[in-house]
Amino acid sequence: MASVRKRTWTTPSGETKTAWVVDYTDSRGDRQRKHFPNEKAADAFRISIEGQIQAGIYRPDANKLTVKHACEAFLAHCEGRNQRDERMTRKMLVVYRGHIINHILHPENGVGAWKLSQLSARAIGEFRDRIRTAGVSVPTTRKVLSTLHGVLEFAISQDWVATNTARRIRVIGPRGEGSERIVPPSKEDIRSIIDAADEDLRLMLIFAASTGARAGEQWATRWRDVDLDKCELRISHRVDAYGEEGAPKSSAGVRTVPLSAQLVSALKACKVKSKFSKDEDLIFANRRGAHVGHDNFIKRQFLPLFDIGCRVKRFNWHGLRHFAISMWIEAGLTPKTVQTFAGHASLQVTMDRYGHLFPSDDHKRAMDGIAKQLFK
């Protein structure tokens, strides 16, 4: 294990010096040595290091490497994954880099200069509080800590640290956070928007409001993904802001959604007129047959609908997805079916967001029965 010994030596100038040395062998079998000014400090370190080695949590690099070094190595790792197409999109890489440069390595509020061994749960909590005090929002702070968590997980994989001290750090939001319920656009609003759109835009709106596809999923849909005979849509890809296609947000995002006869009829008519009608062609392509640029599309085509006499309160494109899911619920689909068609990772996500939209007649009858028993 570790041993403590006193060392005395003479400097070139003839001065005699004394120090206490701790010699130990780390978990990799490498000999290590650390000097201390007195026996008490050396013995305290010996006890600590023996405990860490015995517990299997000692990592010599933690005392040498900084958080900045770990962040840079993590980004290099992510860049490699992106190049090898290993579930790392360019957008994710840009987000990680932004969190690291703007927050984690911030010269005043960040922790970049800290050694990995110094990054305790308390240190991360204080980092969280500093960026919140600096004006960073609750959602962004949570994302920054999630990125730091990823950096430390990478550090664990490199044997630089043994534990992820960011694992249980929470960001407390304001009172009532999360209590706001999703309110989808009304049928009248959707009808007004569709009526105000031209033929091509009308099909895009109807598709989104019927299938519940996310924007990136809709813009990545090709003719081969639609079975016009079985009236089914197979969602298996999405496109990001850089025009790069990849898998949906989660494995649950790969799904089959039934299509109405009206939507199938409209898609058939569109395919006949479109110059991009091959199986590999995008259904909703730009003039060059490439992916629709979502931001430009919203600014130039979708938002102007609210300004051309359509007296509807503005909602964002994702509101069409909320509308589709609300219609499934109104039609009596079970929560599990709604989860499947929506591509949610879990039923909990579906119920947290849309649970208030499910009919509550059974709940009311139960309460009436309880009341009759108690208050006769």
Task: Explain what this protein looks like in three dimensions.
The mean pLDDT is 91. The radius of gyration is 29 Å and the shape is elongated. The strands form three sheets. It has a three-stranded antiparallel β-sheet, covered by helices on one side. A three-stranded antiparallel β-sheet has the order 4-5-8. The termini are far apart. It has three domains: 2-58, no CATH class; 67-157, no CATH class; 191-357, Intergrase catalytic core (hpI Integrase, Chain A). The chain has 14 helices and eight strands. Strand 1 (2-10) and strand 2 (16-25) form a beta hairpin. The protein is mainly alpha-helical and 376 residues long. The longest helix has 20 residues, at 138-157. Helix 2 runs antiparallel to helix 3 (90-104), helix 7 runs antiparallel to helix 9 and helix 12 packs across helix 13 (347-354).
Lay out the secondary structure:
Elements: E1 2-10, E2 16-25, E3 31-36, H1 39-55, H2 67-83, H3 90-104, H4 121-133, H5 138-157, H6 187-196, H7 199-211, H8 215-219, E4 226-227, E5 232-235, E6 238-239, E7 245-246, E8 255-258, H9 261-273, H10 294-302, H11 318-330, H12 335-342, H13 347-354, H14 361-374
